[in-house]
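[09:14] KT: can someone run the structure on this one? pasting the chain below
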Amino acid sequence: MKRAGFFIIPLLLFFFTSAIAAIPGMDKGQNHYDRQEYQEALTYLLTAFQHSPGDANLNFLLGRTYFELGQYEAAVMAYERVMFAEPESARVKLEMARTYLALGSKEYARKYFQEVLATNPPEAVWNNIQRFLLSIKESDRKHFFTGTLSLGLDFDDNPRVAPVDDVIHGIPLVGDGSKPDSDVATIVSATANYIYRPLDSKLFWKTSGLIYNAFYNDQSDLDVNYFELSTGPAVKWGDTLWQNTIFATNIDVDNTQYQDSFGLSSTLTTTLHPAIILTANIRYEDKDNKEYSFRNADNIRFSLNPVLQINPARLSFNFGIEAENADSDIVSYDRFFWQIRVDSPITKDINLYALFLVKTSDYEEADSIFQVKRHDDYHELGIGLSMPFWVSSYGFQTLIGAASYKYIDSDSNIELYTYRRKVVSLNCTYAF
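[09:31] RB: done, structure tokens below
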């Protein structure tokens, strides 16, 4: 019988809706709300409120609108007016719980969630409340561990980035890398993150590790092992997160140490609008090349990454500059890059992405053989699909499959560095 209450409430709301048209502004407010035009909806709903401040259905819709606009205190006041008329409304208690959780009042949120659970709600509502309660419990933790484990295959038609022409300045190229030679690489990677956050503190400490391995079937001298470890403090206030890290990396090629590096990174992320997130990053890296000492370098990079959420799609941009000052000016360069990426669901479970990346590089000194300063124009087009194979009960663990295609067109004023490359990737990732 208690479950029946959840079926009666929508019926009552139907009869409330029948009276909406009698309240000036209510129907237009509802229409704007349905179209997710919350600021416009609020304007009409406040007009309706002046005519009928005690209407329960109006106040409920006002509360939902205030919540979507992030005005949580006003939402609580609207819901309290509904509860004055309907003190046992499970639907309103559920919204009150969500709003108090958004305000950070975990005890009030827990209280209302538990009151709704006591009414024995439908299974979908029950599961949602359990997720909220678990998130409240998680928020009281000091230690957090997350990570991923990925396994995949790369089908690469030019892993050595052999040039388009195998005759350069009248001289035929010979040996490995003179012509494109396709191969398949097995990719194994893992990430691990640990966060320590004192309770009710804006400060926390994050440590992350990354391991990436590529093993080629035929051209084993291209096998790569990459390791990165970073750690540092972060602070979060409101909708802004500032992270600072010190990091170290190691690269091995064909089981031989190729390069070490260490550096510093600072990242600031802020929400400018509910649909706009902006991230800025600056990174300094000191590279120590074990095989070619003339490539030892200081590298500094700055990037700006605005993200626009245009439901249901997400549009991302990335703009940046990079400067590398190597021991030899022949390999020192200045680089500008930009990228645009679109992510969008095409079905309930399948997500599609497409990206276009451009990099322009200018080198500092003329090449001693070709007698010109190298200039590269790099273009990359990518497209991919992903879908979850499995999701745990509360969504904290997932198994995701993905397939992607990448086409690279790199042109240079030195023909040796002009190449084309196509890569098809298949991978499966377990995230926890």
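[09:33] KT: thanks! The radius of gyration is 28 Å.
[09:34] RB: yep, looked fine to me
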